[in-house]
Give the backbone structure.
Amino acid sequence: MDSKTTGNEFSQIIDNFLPEEQFNNLHNLMMGGGMIWHYSDVVDYDGDNEDRFQFSHLFFKPNEGFISPLPDLVRPFIDLLQIQVLIRIKANLNVKGQENNIDGKFHHDHNFVGSRLPDGTLTSYTAIYYVNTNNGYTLFKDGNYKVDSVANRLVIFDSSKLHKAVNCTDEKTRVVINFNYFTHPVLFQYGIIDQYQKSLKLFNEANA
């Protein structure tokens, strides 16, 4: 595992995140015929009505746990990321753009963005793991900062940071795994702030 500082106050890039043999096993399965993908016309946020689509595989779902027949594929990440509470684990497959890189919309991955402990310690994170190398990337709204899609690279960042996917044009697909999680037991109080409405408001303002 090779860690490097990005120079950005809210994210960390880690190259060669998985050991080579483990990465090869994951890569071969997810990029081959053994992976199960489901079509979805929701790409950036619930209620997205644009003529865009992607294929996804949901590994872990809130209140239900692991629902994938391939849970062992992502279990090693739980210890490596020091995850205490999982919110969601989902893989996305986006197909090649025909000419130009296709931007998504700035969004959060879940509704409990920026959750902190009483002392202010951030506890809510998003991590994106890049399965294959291509010229697509993740673009952050803050500072127009981007992370290139490099196989076996992982970026970890504050879940409140708006970001979007940009499809590739040089490979048939762009494949990532998104991890949404808490690094401490959940201590925030439900019902005081409508987290969903808060995150939806930020999403709409970012893409106005």
Remarks:
- The chain is about 15% helix and 35% strand.
- The first strand starts at residue 2 and ends at 5.
- The radius of gyration is 16 Å.
- Confidence is low (pLDDT under 50) at residues 187-197.
